């Protein structure tokens, strides 16, 4: 998965010429000779989206979905700056989705399905959450065969401090200068507890490796290049083929929960069909390992009291301010890049 937003882009958005929109992956779901093609741009991997969309297409045999995968900064660029004609925008970057709606670039949509959503999953009938996905700690089972697996951030700090030679160069987390989701998780962690900055300093002292995406961190835990990965999307870890190689920890002090959201942009050429797809997304049964709003998934392992769901709304725009962004990234660099 590529949930990327470059902080420099955010700072120069108003003055710099628009950069090229970079597509990471693309496929078509449905028949080649479909009567209608719905264009979707998304930060979610094709493998993530495929099992979600197939039931929708089964009920719409004359429809195809042109599915484009891009980083969250490129999704933002395509919709916000270049006004490309996508029918639906799906992203893990809740803050950027909120900005699109706040800037008047999203259509309103109301249906029985969207009206049935809890208040925290529907912002202004424009931004719709359809999954709840926790930020987790993923640890190598082989590395912790003689150590207690940390269950919260303080225990994670302690085990790394007590075993520096074991973990040096083998701890991973997001590079918040590149990853939109990583930046969102980090700012939410910092707002929730000062423990985040102590943790960041310890990881920095151990020469933490920095990543763009959850899938890369998980793969490196499986290969043994990493022993600990911090703030990994639980949904990606739970659906990994080598799940037995690691343990997924939902921190007991607090577990940050991201909402994957969809919006219908002003440029949509098929807003009614896009609305039907929104209805499908928000009405999922929650079966299997996906963390749909109506199911528990990996969240079933956490006590509700420890869950800190990121709230949709204008509060998400605070850290998109260029001065706030620059200040946070500078403090993060001081902690991580020692």
How would you describe this protein?
The structure is a single chain. Mean pLDDT is 88; it is low at 1-18 and 285-290. This protein folds into 2 domains: 7-130 and 260-300, D-Maltodextrin-Binding Protein, domain 2 (3-Layer(aba) Sandwich), CATH 3.40.190; 133-256 and 321-336, Periplasmic binding protein-like II (D-Maltodextrin-Binding Protein, domain 2), CATH 3.40.190. The chain has 13 helices and 12 strands. Helices cover 36% and strands 20% of the residues. Strands 1, 2, 3, 4, 5, 6, 7, 8, 9, 10, 11 and 12 form a 12-stranded mixed sheet that branches. The chain is of the alpha/beta class and 338 residues long. The two termini are 28 Å apart.
Termini separation: 28 Å
Roughly what is the average pLDDT, rounded to an integer?
A: 88
Which H/E pattern describes the elements?
Answer: HEEHEHEHHEEHHEHHEHEHEEHEH
CATH architectural designation of the largest domain: 3-Layer(aba) Sandwich
Q: What percentage of the residues does DSSP assign to strands (E)?
A: 15-25%
- C-alpha geometry: globular
**Class by helix and strand content?**
alpha/beta
Q: Can you say what the CATH homologous superfamily of the largest domain is?
A: Periplasmic binding protein-like II
Task: Catalogue the unreliable spans.
Answer: 1-18, 285-290
